Structure formats: C-alpha cells, structure tokens
Predict the 3D structure of the following.
Amino acid sequence: MAFASQGDTAEKQISFTEIGDGLYAFTAEGDPNSGVIIGDDSVMIVEAQATPRLAQKVIDCVRSVTDKPISHVVLTHYHAVRVLGASAFGADQVIMSDAARGMVIERGQEDWDSEFQRFPRLFEGHESIPGLTFPTTTFSDSMTVYLGQRKVEIKQIGRAHTAGDSVIWVPDSQTMFTGDVVEYHSACYCGDGHFEEWG
C-alpha cells in the first residue's frame, strides 16, 4: 500500500506569519515549515526545506520584511525533507547537533532516497539539490548565537523525534522553535523516534 503522502501533490497555500517581534513562521498548510529570526544585523533560518527551489520561497518571504543578510541556518534534526535546501540561503554557518551530523554520515543518502519516494510534493525542484547537507558548525549540548544584540540559544535536548533533535529558544520574546519534536493536529513521524525519551 502506498503512503498517503505519495498522493499529496496539490499546490499548498503558503503563509508567512509574524509570531513575535522579528519572528516569523513560514508554512504551506502545515508542511513544509521554516522559522525566521531577524536580529539586529542578520537573519537566522530554522529548517531549510527539501530543495533549493522550495527554500527560495522562504527567502522571498524574508525579503518581503527585511534586506538583512541570512547568516545562519539551523537544522533541528536530520531528515532530508528538512535540510537539503540549505545551500540556497548562502549562510556563513549551517548548524546542527553532533548527533544529527552523525545521522547524515550514517544514512544521509538512504534517508534522501526514501523521503524522495514518500513526499513528492516536498521535493519540488529536486534537480537543484547539490548533494547531502553537512553542517559547518556542530555542538554537543548547547550553543549561543548573537544576531547583533539578539541572543538565540540552541539546545540539543536528547533523543526524541530523532537521535539529534535541537530546539531554538529566543529569550527576548519567550519563543521556541521545536522542529518536529512537537506536532499540531498531526501524528508524529516515528520512524527514527526514541519513545522512552520523547517527552
């Protein structure tokens, strides 16, 4: 029996919603999602989309609200549909946890091949993917990034949706980007889940 997602090929309505001061949520009726954090001097993107072509839709939305450069892309975990568009942003730093990087090494291409078959809508423009996405910066527990004066904390919270999930906390607005650790009106994907540790 085919995955329901294989038949989900209709165009989705994109929304770009301000969720706090300089904070935005990009989505296309629930998937794919990206977060945007605008600092004093640059922009951080949370989740990169599956292809550079889809990432360009996020960039176009960002450019509708700021011309600051995109300096950081944070990947909350490794699943191909969340990371393979990272090259489009031209960011100086692509950040993920050490454990998430380990998943790229262990089964990056295998996951890409699997998700490409299961999620055709999310791989629009797949021919533009330059290859597996590897981070330029990793961390084992937590790290802090300053976008000018704006502090952003990135924490690897342990095993949950995958072995390497991270969350992004913006203290000045009390806002957290959770990746796929938290789902809304959707069953969580559990193929790489660690149920006893997923709070």
Remarks:
- The chain has three helices and eleven strands.
- The mean pLDDT is 91.
- The chain has one domain: 12-177.
- The longest helix spans residues 98-118.
